[in-house]
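Slide 14.
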Amino acid sequence: MTVGPGIKLKGEVSDCDTLVVEETVEATLTSEVLEVAEGGTYTGSATVTDAEEHGRLKAN
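Slide 15: predicted structure.
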């Protein structure tokens, strides 16, 4: 799933193989891969196998 430019997501994300954050996400996440693109912000808790950070990642 991609959260693209102009989209803000808040809540819980589960059963998602890959989450790509290009804008703003504030969530609880269970995923295989979290990718925070340049200009993207992820805030919240995250249970992931792999994370790639080019933007801002503030996970618990």
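Speaker note: The mean pLDDT is 96.
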